[in-house]
Write a structure and sequence with these properties.
Layout (H helix, E strand, L loop, with lengths): L6 H17 L23 H26 L4 E11 H7 L4 E9 L3 E8 L3 H8 L14 H22 L5 E7 L2 H4 L8 E10 L4 E9 L4 H12 L6 H12 L5 E4 L7 H5 L17 E5 L2 E11 L2 E6 L7 E5 L7 E2 L4
Parallel strand pairs: 7-12
Antiparallel strand pairs: 1-5, 2-3, 2-4, 3-6, 5-6, 7-8, 8-9, 9-10, 10-11
Helix pairs in contact: 2-5, 2-7
Membrane topology: Peripheral membrane protein
Main location: other
Subcellular location: Bacterial flagellum basal body; Cell membrane
Amino acid sequence: MEKNLLQEDIDALFAAAGANATAKTNDNGDAKPPEKYSFSNAGQISNDQMRAISTVNDLFARNLMHTLGAWLRMPLKVKLVSGEQLPFNEFLERLSTMSYICSVRLEPLGAVGLLELDLALAAPIVDVLLGGTGRAGQVRELTDIEEAILTAVVQVVMQELNLAWQPVGLVFAFEKRETEAQAARTMTLGEKTLCVSFEARMPEVQGVLNLCLPAVVLNAILRRLIAQGDQPRRRSKDAQAKMRELVGEVKVGAVLQFPPVRLRAAELSSLEPGAVLRLPLPRYQMAELRVGGLQFGRAYPVRTGEHRGAQIEGENCGSLMKLSSGNDVAAATTSVN
């Protein structure tokens, strides 16, 4: 059922709203004047949000450096250079004439961003993936084969972006390569964007990787990111039990050895098969049990069938640690200085 408001009803609503605004007071009891709102601030990213973005992008840069470097099998350094808010037309003015530009869909926001890769990085990447050594080449347009190879590299970049932004549920999906004219139509020229720049260094060349995202659609995601960052991370009891179970399956190296002793070089040089080397140690000297290279305690070597172990003495008296079994190398070794 529709209800039509008369002019008197509308005037009454505005009068009531004005009275409520006037009734608001500050700490001193004085009436607060209505605050003006500037629509030009819509989509403005706050300082807290920018710090949260920098944290996520630092993580992305480190992960991309290790993942892409291992994939290319060559040294690669990636670092965050800057993150700033720009009108879309300013971002377009900064685009290089020789660059790889692709559109990126942001889900579940349904928005579209842009990714720019300096073509100076394309030549060594393509050279490595085709079996070369990663030499820098002339910056030029890509062939169809080179573009297909570079698209695979961009897919790796998408994977690392998704991994970094996973806590807030933002998903990056590669769409297609865009020309500069097509890229200019993805957003309105005056729309505020978040432009994040990364520097990539390879042995013979360096270039930039730029990410342009519409700022207004990121506000809800960024608020969620800040809220999650303020919450203390607590592990549930099930997670703690699972962690203890996994740690319990970890294998660490253990060795039972004599403490360091000093010997004359002449005694070592005169050794022959069948000779007995007398060590300057007491007859009942206990051996050192080292776990992961660190001294765990003192113990006696023991054996049960094919299994060798260490009988720990002292504070942990009575405990038995299995060192090796079967035809493994003997656990007791001698360290000579």
